[in-house]
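Class, look over these structure tokens:
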Amino acid sequence: MKRLRKESEKREMDENPSLPSFKYYPDPLADGIVKADPDKPCLGCGRIRGWIYTGPVYVEKNFILEESLCPWCIADGTAAKRFGASFNDAGMMEDMSQAIMEEIEQRTPGFNSWQGNQWLTCCNDAAAFLGAAGSAELQRDFPKAIPAVKKYSREDYELTGDDLQKFVDSLSKDDQPTAYVFQCLHCQGYLAYVDQT
């Protein structure tokens, strides 16, 4: 009986492998960029794995890939090779190696933003994307990122004093403007930018 149970557990683990990890996007489930879908096959590998990617996809040809790729085909580069797909624009990443830029563009899930996402960098590497945030999420989930959001808002929007605080208080995860929070993989410092249409 014990042996049958172990074999059954092994089959379940083989059929439902753990999600791949992404160095620069540690929790794509948090924003719903990867979601459970027990019935949807992946166009990259043809398998039904129980998880599907819902974020942005950019392709060279006329492929329709929205909500049609599994996270494994993103992680191993299958989607990039097979469809010429990219998930982020690394063109603004100054002084980054080609290998890091390719990992961000071709093997890292993208995130939804108002005008196209930016990937922030620190310590000669891409930073890890932690999530989109409004004022409530900043207070609850990313309080150490608030100075980075304020710094960006001061520099980009030229806000100070009460205007700066009102702007930060007006941030919304589901409406605009929205903050996008990153953390350096080396110095552990927080980075952020704010986007709106």
Notes: The first strand starts at residue 34 and ends at 37. Confidence is low (pLDDT under 50) at residues 1-14.
